[in-house]
Specification:
Elements lengths: L2 H8 L30 E5 L2 E5 L4 E9 L4 E7 L5 E8 L8 H6 L14 E7 L2 E6 L4 E2 H10 L6 H22 L1 E2 L8 E3 L5 E3 L6 E2 L17 H4 L9 H17 L10 H10 L13 H10 L10 H5 L2 H4 L3 H12 L4
Antiparallel strand pairs: 1-2, 3-4, 4-5, 5-7, 6-7, 8-10, 9-12, 10-11
């Protein structure tokens, strides 16, 4: 299957949607507001455009913390619509990164069905607020609920999750020339309709950016080349593929294979010196899934699969998008 046919099958995008991602790199202190943003923005929702500021929203609850700030569930007072709002303090933004500023503007990037939608961004008090699509559950929370009932995530659901995230990462790589750098279940989100979307682009960078070589991301999902100082120059696209494989492994088994480290040397020993994890034959999964994970979890970067390899793997090729969407929605009912 050619790259063009892979792209046509997996990445056909609805032209009417608008999507924005927030790319940010490592934090530098900035004490003044972001110059390309104002204290208000145009919010397009339900076929209506309205001007909003931070005062138009009320907190509902905190959803979590990302690499650069916190995410809240907030309600627009006038319409009662709810959003996920990422609040990034000015001191966590890098004014020397023009891509970061540009991507906080409205309508600059193309849509994709497997990336979390962004509506608008503005400044409020001492932070940038980014209004995001509100999903129902993150996959780390889902996994904890599944484990509490002593159950497993069915393979067809894992297949739908994997297809969605691989498609999102492929789009980031080939359409936006970006890598994510923080792939983990907590950044994979689901809704009641069965949709799976990749979120939290707080550590994403363009491939031309030298910050690509820095050690960000949750350490237990880092590829060996990101932990080994001697190999750090090799860090790139395939490091996200290792993190993807480890995330799907965790969703399948219910556990991350690496223990919390005692120190950096312990982290190095676990990830670099141990054999890569492999899916036990005792678990109720197919060899297609085992083979897929083995393709992702290869220590040697040059031998690890790339996105085209993953998309034409037996595990992904057998995806029926509509059927697996319904299957996933039915599975999620019990946990949302």
């Amino acid at each position: 299957m050619s790259e063009q046919s892979v792209r046509h099958r997996f990445l056909a995008l609805p032209s009417e949607q608008k999507l924005k991602l927030d790319r940010v790199t490592s934090p530098r202190c900035q004490l003044t507001p972001v110059p390309n943003l104002s204290t208000s923005a145009i919010l397009d929702i339900n076929d209506t455009s309205i001007t909003v500021t931070g005062d138009d929203f009320e907190d509902t609850c905190i959803l979590g913390e990302g690499f650069f700030g916190q995410v809240f569930k907030m309600r627009l007072k006038s319409t009662k619509e709810s959003f996920a709002v990422k609040k990034i303090p000015f001191c966590n933004l890098d004014p020397r990164n023009p891509d970061m500023i540009a991507d906080l503007e409205i309508g600059k990037l193309h849509p994709h069905p497997f990336l979390l939608r962004s509506y608008c961004a503005f400044t409020h008090v001492d932070s940038v607020w980014i209004l995001l699509e509100l999903m129902d559950i993150s996959l780390d929370v889902l996994l904890n609920k599944v484990k509490a009932l002593n159950e497993y995530i069915p393979e067809n659901v894992l297949k739908h999750i994997t297809f969605s995230i691989v498609s999102a990462l492929y789009y980031l790589r080939f359409d936006m020339n970006m890598i994510h750098r923080d792939i983990k279940p907590a950044n994979m989100l689901a809704n009641k309709s069965g949709e799976i979307k990749l979120g939290d682009f707080g550590t994403a960078v363009t491939l031309s950016n030298c910050e690509i070589l820095t050690d960000v991301g949750s350490w237990r999902y880092l590829a060996p080349e990101r932990v080994s100082c001697g190999s750090i120059k090799n860090y790139g696209v395939k490091s996200d593929i290792w993190s993807l494989g480890l995330s799907i492994y965790e969703l399948a088994t219910g556990t991350n294979p690496y223990e919390p480290p005692k120190d950096p040397v312990d982290a190095f020993n676990q990830i670099v010196n141990r054999d890569p994890p492999s899916l036990s034959s005792d678990l109720p999964y197919s060899n297609h899934l085992r083979d897929f994970l083995n393709m992702c979890l290869i220590k040697e970067v040059s031998e690890r699969a790339d996105y085209n390899d993953l998309l034409v793997s037996d595990f992904i090729r057998s995806v029926d998008v509509n059927s697996h969407l319904i299957t996933t929605a039915q599975f999620l009912v019990k946990y949302i």
